[in-house]
Write a structure and sequence with these properties.
Layout (H helix, E strand, L loop, with lengths): L1 H17 L7 H17 L1 H33 L4 H11 L1 H4 L1 H10 L8 H20 L5 H32 L4 H38 L1 H13 L13 H16 L2 H15 L5 H10 L8 H26 L4 H15 L1 H7 L2 H4 L4 H29 L6 H29 L10 H12 L21 H13 L9 H6 L2
Length: 497
């Protein structure tokens, strides 16, 4: 009782601080008050899980992995740009099947626990796979792809549980849905900024394989989350009912997806990613190998991507403070249009137009990367908030994973489509004559989703509510089976000792 009163007092104090007049000092103290407010309302353990998985494992570790993989494929495996695009799609398959990981953690406890073993096992899988690449001197391409895929599996499994926490708390605290997405995006961007800032230096000093050795540290942190997590043990679990629970979850997801208010925005999210072709490998090879290009060093490439992380962070801050209440269609219209226009900076760079205006390559690329990442984040944030609102209670973790996998499949389509485009235009390790044409085609396709905006709901994403028939079915499901497929958040796990 005393503990509850203390919590309420802390919550009132945090809210009072949040409502104080916003002077110049608020620019510094404001984020701290905001972070404290979220910690009071949703428990520190929720924030710890978000920062650990999004900020350190995905943001920081993902930045190191991206630069390390780029140079590993280029310098160690010596593959063509179009091939590197295909291999990047293959290693990202674990993100396509996130609902499977969600269902496993929902309905299949290990030794009586639903969450802790999956955190611990995913961390161990990440450590082993990264050590394999790091320590093996001449690893065959097939085994390298398997190890990279295993590493992505480890990250995806850890990500599913935190996604479920965010989705569940978005329903419990609907007014804080945008704040939680901003927390996720900010953690990811800050981690990415730190990772990209040092990635090029480490690739230069210890090589790409050495970077994979460093990635064992973020993976080990995931296991630490599982060790520290206090979770009630499931007693007398009926493993014979696992198949039925899988079927029930699949049926519930299919029922939700059939609703026009759900499948229409899902279709838009997929198509908006799929048609925006990804030709990053062609640009990366041109940055580093072309005699007519800037020939950036490893350190410079890392710094460029770190500027992109700053742009993404600014996009998250801009959305949180100014744009989170704007109408969804208006936001998507302008961000999609600006996303296509920002791509023209790559075309100007490849055509060397920046030098005609006296702008150095490094400065021009840094500005272009920051702008593109900021616009991309602004485009992505309202879709994340909307996705959290589309999740029916009881299977919010699995369904949110399904929505994210739809987006990831769109990204896979974009990556393989971009690889095919580079192959058809004969863009190789040393030939970049048609790279400008690939960029132009990509930019035109980037604005094509503007014709599909009728698929997304009107109004701001925070006001979206699932249809009544889905809400009523949710209540029936929860009544019939209280220990349903809902992913227990870190908050519930800690407080339910």
């Amino acid at each position: 009782m005393v503990e509850e009163e203390d919590t309420e007092a802390c919550s009132r104090k945090a809210l009072e601080e949040d409502d104080e007049s916003k002077g110049l000092c608020y620019c510094f103290w404001g984020p701290m008050y905001w972070f404290k407010m979220l910690a009071v309302e949703m428990h520190w353990s929720f924030l710890f899980g978000v920062v650990s998985v999004y900020g350190i494992n995905q943001g920081f570790g993902g930045a190191l992995a991206r630069i390390g993989t780029e140079y590993y494929m280029k310098d160690v495996q010596k593959v063509q740009p179009s091939e590197a695009q295909v291999y990047a799609g293959i290693t990202s398959v674990p993100w396509m099947i996130k609902p499977i990981w969600g269902l496993l953690t929902d309905v299949l406890p290990i030794m009586g626990y639903r969450r802790r073993p999956y955190f611990i096992l995913s961390g161990l899988l990440g450590v082993v796979s990264m050590l394999l690449i790091s320590l093996h001197s001449k690893l065959h391409l097939v085994f390298a792809l398997l190890a990279l895929t295993a590493g992505n599996t480890a990250v995806a499994v850890a990500d599913v549980t935190v996604d479920a926490c965010v989705a569940q708390n978005s329903i419990t605290y609907p007014s804080r849905a945008a704040d939680m997405q901003s927390l996720c995006a900010s953690s990811y961007s800050v981690g990415g900024l730190l990772g990209f800032s040092i990635s090029g230096v480490f690739v230069h000093l210890i090589g790409p394989k050495g970077v994979f050795g460093l990635l064992t540290v973020p993976a080990a942190l995931v296991s630490l989350v599982g060790i520290l997590l206090s979770e009630p043990q499931v007693s007398n679990f009926a493993y014979s009912e696992v198949n039925q629970k899988f079927l029930d979850a699949a049926k519930a997801m299919w029922t939700t997806l059939k609703c026009p208010d759900v499948w229409r925005p899902c279709l838009y999210m997929y198509l908006s990613f799929a048609v925006s072709l990804n030709i990053n490998e062609g640009l990366f090879y041109w940055y580093t190998d072309s005699k007519d290009g800037p020939s950036f060093s490893k350190e410079t490439v890392g710094y460029i991507f770190s500027m992109g992380a700053i742009g993404a962070l600014l996009g998250a801050i801009l959305y949180q403070n100014l744009l989170k209440d704007h109408h969804l269609r208006d936001m998507l219209f302008w961000t999609q249009l600006l996303f296509g226009l920002a791509g023209m900076l790559d075309l100007m760079l490849v055509q060397r137009m920046n030098l005609k205006f006296g702008i150095p390559d490094y400065l021009f690329v840094v500005i272009g990367e920051a702008i593109s990442q900021m616009i991309s984040r602004l485009k992505w944030m309202p879709l994340l908030v909307l996705s959290s609102k589309l999740c029916p209670s009881g299977i919010e973790g699995t369904f949110f994973a399904l929505l994210m996998s739809i987006d990831n499949i769109g990204g896979l389509t974009s990556t393989w489509g971009g690889g095919l485009l580079l192959h058809l235009l004969n863009v190789t390790r040393t030939k970049f004559d048609n790279l400008w044409l690939a960029i132009l085609i990509r930019n035109i396709l980037r604005v094509s989703p503007l014709c599909l905006l009728f698929l997304v709901p009107r109004g701001d994403p925070n006001s979206f509510v699932l249809p009544t028939e889905l809400l009523s079915s949710k209540e029936e499901t929860e009544t019939q089976e209280p220990d349903n497929l809902e992913l227990v958040s870190l908050v519930n796990s800690v407080d339910g000792r």
